[in-house]
Amino acid sequence: MTRVAWAKAASFYGGLLWGTFWIPVRELDKAGIEGFWSVVFLYFLATLVAVPVMAWRWRRTRANFWRQQLAGLFLGTAAAIYAAAFLYTEVATAVLLYYLAPVWGFLLARLVLKDPITPLRWISMILALSGAAVILGDEGWPPLPANLGDWFALAAGLLFVTGSLMMLSWPKIAPLDYSLSFFLWSGGSMLLAALILEPSLPPQEDLVAVLPWLLPFVLLGLMPGSFAAIYGATILNPGVVSIIYMSEIGVSIFLAAILTNEPFGLREISGIALIALAAVAEGLFDLYRRARARP
Fold first, then answer.
1. pTM for the whole thing?
2. Helix (H) or strand (E) holding 97
3. How does pLDDT run across 86-104, given as a tens digit for each residue?
4. Alpha carbon distance 145, 132 (integer Å)
């Protein structure tokens, strides 16, 4: 397989993994590790693995250490609050609001990189915002986030796009080092929030009870899946990545429809279709632009 083919496969695997991410978060909550602490404990295990590796790679990374940490702060915080969103809102709502990220990406690219907002991108933003309006419109008008989970999902998309923009701007930093910083800050940022907002630690016996299934998930699923997603994003153009990542929406909402009692009907299907079209439109635009640029 070529390097690009590996990157596509990695991105697809990362999207599939993130589509199952809400399940262990909710299982931890049911097991007595509630609220922010469920996210803290999930990512803290990954942080324990990441910190020694970061120390071992210090000489290779010190020249760009603070850039690496800044990107990791945005990416890791995005992942942490995205996970927390599943505790406070429906799975379909959290996933779809998070995937408004292309809208924030267009606006930030315009502000930071002076990238033009083309007519196709305006169409993409309208489609994405229309999908969000369909999902949120059930709560009344105007269609605004109705709870903490909705706001978390929106903020996660904005933070992730910001971190991705940093990562693309600093290509000399290896995907492994971005991933290590991602794990450090995903656990660290949520730990800080938990200590401030939910200072009571979960019972020790509850923590020990979940380790037999949580450790394999973190080591075999969360860590390699997150690395795969970051690796793909450092090689492929954003349009290709956005199309491949759409696998997360399908997996998340399909599993939620099977495993939970959350509503899944015409409103959810319509929202999925509109936001998926928005992401595909952006992907097609990038592919077209690359094709035109070739000699």
1. 0.81
2. helix 91-98
3. 888 888 778 878 877 667 7
4. 9
